[in-house]
């Protein structure tokens, strides 16, 4: 294998993806992971715990985005059962998750294909 | 249009792409633009000028990558004509350009499609 070929094989395609609103950064992988964890666990506490974050940090990330957008991504409610309460990802939150996940998957595919067939 | 819909329409998908070699950043949009300009003009001086950069800066960016990879991206030669000399992008340089351009085009397409049909 020539030097150029071996260099070529040690290359990886890397990328970062985010969403902007009116030209300002609003939503990246961190926020996506938090919403996903809240959506799956049904509470911010458990969602944050699953990601190894504090409740305060996770909630702070989401609150920051909500302020920028002027709309809620998560709605909390008091529950009737023991330990009660819970959180629900809003329709807007789900939209952002869908956009982020769809583009990520396609970027992943493109980057993966490129790593396989270098030229 | 609901608030959520209008937010959704003001969102743009943004991304950054780069290549890593053995886990280290080596090649991004800046380097791509420099190689492209050198390739098209045939000299580093004119290539840099076209991009509004100094010769020194453009050449510095490329030299840095060459050091990391231990291989040349640009080869210079003394010309015989007036003002002589010129620069040529190596086969490795062309490979990096091709990978970067191919992935960029596909990312652009994915991001564009997503911006059109939000859900």
Verbal overview:
2 copies of one chain form a homodimer. Chain A starts with a helix and ends with a helix. Chain A has 5 helices and 4 strands; from the N terminus they run αββαααββα. The mean pLDDT of chain A is 89. In chain A, α2 crosses α5. Chain A has one domain: Winged helix-like DNA-binding domain superfamily/Winged helix DNA-binding domain (Arc Repressor Mutant, subunit A, Orthogonal Bundle). In chain A, a hairpin with a 2-residue loop joins β1 and β2 (24-27). By secondary structure, chain A is an alpha+beta fold. Chain A is elongated and about 65 Å long. In chain A, the strands form 2 sheets. A two-stranded antiparallel sheet of chain A has the order 1-2. The first copy, chain A, has a two-stranded antiparallel ribbon with strand order 3-4. β1 (11-21) of chain A pairs antiparallel with β1 of chain B.
């Amino acid at each position: 294998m020539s030097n150029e070929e071996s260099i070529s094989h040690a290359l990886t395609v890397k990328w970062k993806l985010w969403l902007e609103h009116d030209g300002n950064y609003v939503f990246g992988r961190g926020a996506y992971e938090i919403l996903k964890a809240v959506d799956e666990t049904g509470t911010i506490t458990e969602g944050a715990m699953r990601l190894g974050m504090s409740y305060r940090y996770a909630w702070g990330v989401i609150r920051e985005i909500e302020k920028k957008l002027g709309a809620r991504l998560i709605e909390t409610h008091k529950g009737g059962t023991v330990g009660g309460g819970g959180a629900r990802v809003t329709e807007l939150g789900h939209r952002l998750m869908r956009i982020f996940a769809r583009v990520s998957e396609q970027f992943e595919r493109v980057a993966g294909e490129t790593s396989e067939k270098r030229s």
